[in-house]
Design a protein that fits this description.
CATH architecture of the largest domain: 2-Layer Sandwich
Radius of gyration: 34 Å
CATH topology of the largest domain: Nucleotidyltransferase, domain 5
Order of helices and strands: HHHHEEEHEHHEH
Number of domains: 2
Helix content: 55-70%
Structural class: alpha/beta
Number of helices: 8
CATH class of the largest domain: Alpha Beta
Strand content: 15-25%
Length: about 230
């Protein structure tokens, strides 16, 4: 006869509920009530057979869950590895802003080496539209890369116009940006291996912040210059 711990180990939640109800209604002990419930569940089989069967079912279920967990973990790790860039490559992000559009331009960029060296770019870029600002940001990043000559460079930007234009995935080149495209390709030709990829804006936050900072500083300088001119004229 299985002991009470054996019965508790294989009892389903519904068995425990029926056992507590039987214990209350008939004044039985917890062990007596649960034994009665499980004997009914066993039917023609013995209580020991029921315990063995349910233990095997629990073991099989646990093994299936563990197999699924390992498969899921392996699939997640594979996707993670596929998303991770080449550990030996330099990484770069670029973003350009125009306020208003067209208006004052600011370019931002980040360049990171495999050993953690980080170069940040944030500067005003005159006047123009957003497409020009994005291209000027890409050019600024590529110029920094040319100075350092990485063996492999992965460049990310959230401008579909510029990325598509550089990759020639559009039906035609972006109008008005031909000179920027030529310069960017000339810079890439000076590097060993460059890959351009589009990313959503929320994954390009640092470069965006640097481009916005450049415009903000440019506006502050303009306000300061105008104020000095106004004081000199008064």
């Amino acid at each position: 006869m299985p002991d009470f711990e054996d019965l508790l180990a294989v009892a389903y939640k519904s068995d425990l509920v029926l056992g507590r109800r039987l214990q209350k209604n008939r004044g039985l002990s917890a062990q007596e009530a649960l034994t009665s419930v499980l004997q009914q569940a066993a039917g023609d089989a013995t209580l020991a057979d029921l315990v063995r069967t349910r233990r095997q079912l629990k073991l099989d279920t646990a093994q299936k869950l563990e197999t699924r967990r390992k498969a899921s973990a392996a699939a997640f790790e594979l996707k993670k590895q596929q998303r991770q860039p080449d550990p030996g490559a330099w990484l770069a992000w670029f973003d350009g802003s125009a306020h208003p559009n067209p208006g004052k331009l600011g370019v931002g960029g980040v360049l990171k080496s495999p050993d953690g060296e980080t170069i940040r770019i944030s500067r005003a870029a005159g006047q123009g539209n957003s497409g020009e600002g994005e291209y000027l940001a890409l050019i600024a990043v590529l110029q920094e890369a040319v100075r350092r000559q990485p063996e492999k460079l992965l460049v990310y930007g959230d401008s579909q116009v510029v990325i598509n234009d550089m990759l020639q995935t559009g039906k035609a080149g972006a109008r008005g940006l031909e000179a920027y495209r030529i310069l960017a390709r000339q810079l890439i030709a000076q590097l060993e291996a460059v890959t351009l990829s589009w990313i959503p804006r929320h994954k390009n936050a640092e470069a965006d912040a640097l481009s916005q900072k450049a415009i903000s500083m440019n506006l502050q300088q303009a306000i300061g210059t105008n104020s000095q001119q106004a004081i000199g004229a008064s």
